[in-house]
Specification:
The chain is α+β, with helices and mostly antiparallel strands. The chain has one domain: Chalcone isomerase (3-Layer(bba) Sandwich), CATH 3.50.70. The protein has helices at 53-59, 81-86, 124-133, 146-151, and strands spanning 21-22, 46-51, 72-78, 91-97, 109-112, 118-119. The chain has a six-stranded antiparallel β-sheet with strand order 1-2-3-4-5-6. A hairpin with a 5-residue loop joins strand 5 and strand 6. The chain is globular, with a radius of gyration of 14 Å. The structure holds heme C. Residues 28, 32-33, 35-37, 39-40, 47, 49, 73-75, 93-95, 111-113, 128-129, 132-133, 136, 142-144 line the site of heme C.
Length: 153
């Protein structure tokens, strides 16, 4: 899958993500949005989502969409509940909000895979992530925000 040159922050920007606002106070499993397909450790996986301080107000619905530049949404995926409890083999997928106009094809999000490959523009990686996250276009490509979590627990 073709990737693209890095535009957003280095991976060191999420070194301390465990101190960020936790969008999912309890891990999600199954397919709460109905759009999971087979990705993100599939329906048997356990997932936890975090947002950095830049995006927190929008995520918590005290500011309106779109997310500001510099927002980072990060998701941990574990293959099952035992792995979650032991924090074993965590996989991180990340979305970084770029400056307006940097990647119109992805709503100005840079998608980052667990191996740190980057996806913007019309690269294969960007298209793969974007084509599914597009179902959440009304909330700026973000499937699970704080409001969704509260309403679907
Ligand atoms: C087939 C659909 C699909 C594809 C493809 C997909 N995602 Fe997701 N993604 C989801 C769903 C559904 C969620 C909500 C998580 C859950 O259900 O627990 C999600 C959640 C996320 C989140 C947390 C923020 C949010 O929107 O809830 C990030 C970050 C993320 N995905 C990154 C990526 C990246 C990076 C790629 C490409 C490598 C990707 N996704 C590809 C469906 C997809």
């Amino acid at each position: 899958m073709s990737t693209s040159p890095q535009l957003g922050a280095d991976a060191s920007a999420w070194d301390n993500y465990l101190s960020w606002y936790k969008v999912t106070p309890e891990a999600t499993t199954g397919d709460p949005t109905g759009f999971l397909g087979g990705v993100h450790a599939s329906t048997r996986g356990y997932r936890q989502i975090y947002v950095n301080s830049t995006g927190e107000a929008v995520n918590r619905s005290s500011a309106s969409y779109p997310y500001p530049e510099g927002t980072i949404l990060l998701k941990e995926s574990f293959s099952n509940e035992a792995a979650l409890d032991a924090r074993r083999n965590v996989e991180l997928t990340v979305m970084i909000k770029l400056a307006a106009g940097q990647s119109p094809a992805t709503g100005d999000w840079e998608y980052v895979r667990p191996d740190d490959a980057r996806g913007t523009g019309d690269s294969g990686l960007a298209t793969f992530c974007r084509d599914c996250h597009l179902f959440a276009a009304a909330t700026d490509y973000n499937f699970i925000n704080s409001v969704f979590f509260q309403n679907n627990r």
